[in-house]
Amino acid sequence: MTLKIAIDPDAGTAPYEQLRTQISELARSGELPVGYRLPTVRGFAEELGLAANTVAKAYRALESDGVIETRGRNGTFIAAAGDTADRKAAAAAREYAEQARRLGLSRARAASLAEDAVRVAYEG
């Protein structure tokens, strides 16, 4: 299986973020199945025409997000990303709801602010 990753040097998004987003989307869609072994940082960097540090930064972000896992010398693999992403998002939502309640916001106002934040994050 060949990874279908395209980095647009003219995009307003940093190359590491483009790489992180694309791998994350491929993992969530199932195109990259759980257990799929990703290329080495250096090999992937060479293939994509990026600096090794750029790929390493994307891999670190993906690992932090729970999308991938590194197994030492055995390599880097797609983890069960959907479950991890859902758990992390739910935890962040709970934390936000608790903070909004402590601040005295009404439920409607807290939901409105959360919706605004989501809209901005997804639409720019």
UniProtKB/TrEMBL annotation:
Pfam families: GntR. Keywords: DNA-binding, Transcription, Transcription regulation. It comes from the Bacteria. SUPFAM superfamilies: Winged helix' DNA-binding domain (SSF46785). The keyword DNA-binding applies. InterPro entries: Tscrpt_reg_HTH_GntR, WH-like_DNA-bd_sf, WH_DNA-bd_sf. SMART domains: HTH_GNTR. The keyword Transit peptide does not apply. Residues 13-81 form the HTH gntR-type domain. PANTHER family: HTH-TYPE TRANSCRIPTIONAL REPRESSOR YTRA. This is GntR family transcriptional regulator. It comes from Streptomyces sp. 900116325. The lineage of its organism: Bacteria, Bacillati, Actinomycetota, Actinomycetes, Kitasatosporales.
